[in-house]
Amino acid sequence: MDTSRLQSLFGLEGKRAVVTGGSRGIGYMIADGLLDAGADVIISARKENQVAEAVESLSAKGNIEGIPADLSTDEGLEHLAAEVAQRWDRLDILCNNAGASWGEPIESFSPGGWDKVMNVNVRGVFFLTQKLLPLLRAGANAEDPSRIINTGSVNGLTPPGMDTFSYSSSKAAVHMLTRHLGKELASDHITVNAIAPGPFDSNMMAFALNDPNSRAAIASGVPMGRIGMPDDMAGVAIYLASAAGAYVTGAVVPVGGGLSTITE
Q1: Is position 28 annotated as part of the catalytic site?
Q2: Rounded to an integer, what is the distance from CA 229 to the centroid of its chain?
Q3: Does residue 144 contact residue 135 with C-beta atoms inside 8 Å?
Q4: How far apart are CA 33 and CA 232, in angstroms?
Q5: Contact (Cβ atoms closer than 8 angstroms) between residue 119 and residue 98
Q6: Which residue among 28, 167, 239, 247 is the active-site one?
């Protein structure tokens, strides 16, 4: 086995990454994987104590720092972008993972629930990307582009069976925004791709996956018959962030055990 080639393809030594929503769930899995591949990582999330706990648990793996920020507000977006710029003169990888969800029957679905989800899941992704573009452009070149990885969802590919109307709509919007930005930023040597997860152990899925019966029922509905594991998420993030994924842009990669193949 040519381990040097594997390292050159998938290693991230010297790369600098920001992962939003990185204190728990899918964001934590992504940050964990990027650290293992050699990247320096900044994670961000809204709750300061959760950010601190995640940094402590991951600190043995590499260089990691936490910046608490509420990305549902302009002030939070400005704060995170300014703090990153204070620390680094370039950014190689931006993982827009912070997200929100809301479930309510259509008859009573609230405007506040709709706006909260769209604000975090779509507006926040776009405007944080906008604010960090100078750093993403700074180190990018044709052979080694900077990377933006957005977290979408299989619920943005096929309609879910839950009353999460704003969530599924927001994730479909993230997928289109990914394609649009992929086209727009290609000339800047920045790739833009999305990961569309199925069921993983995360805060959003805790209400269903923490109950053994519900967990088994959800797993049985996945063609591959199981819930996603941390390495499933880390692996695809490392691929999109590494030299192996340098010629991939505008893609939406389903990571849901085949859920994206179910149309009814």
Answers
A1: no
A2: 15
A3: no
A4: 10
A5: no
A6: 167
How do residues 206-257 score in pLDDT, each as one tens digit?
667 777 888 888 788 888 888 899 999 999 999 999 999 999 999 999 998 8
Instruction: Map out the domains of the chain as residue ranges.
Output: 14-208+224-258
User: Do 10 and 86 contact (CB within 8 A), yes or no?
Assistant: no
The residues with which 228 forms a beta bridge, in sequence order, are: 200
CA atoms within 13 A on the CB side of 27: 29
Distances (CA, A) of 1 to 154, 242, 243: 35, 19, 18
Q: What is the 3-state secondary structure (H, E, C) of the chain?
A: CCHHHHHHHHCCCCCEEEEECCCCHHHHHHHHHHHHCCCEEEEECCCHHHHHHHHHHHHHHCCEEECCCCCCCHHHHHHHHHHHHHHCCCCCEEEECCCCCCCCCCCCCCHHHHHHHHHHHHHHHHHHHHHHHHHHHHCCCCCCCEEEEEECCHHHCCCCCCCCHHHHHHHHHHHHHHHHHHHHHHHHCEEEEEEEECCECCCCCHHHHCCHHHHHHHHHCCCCCCCECHHHHHHHHHHHHCHHHCCCCCCEEEECCCHHHCCC
Count Cα neighbours of 20 within 13 Å in the Cβ-side half-sphere.
31
Tell me, rounded to whole angstroms, the distance of Cα 74 from its chain centroid: 20
168-204 pLDDT tens trace: 999 999 999 999 999 999 999 999 999 999 888 877 7
Q: Which CATH class is domain 14-208+224-258?
A: alpha beta
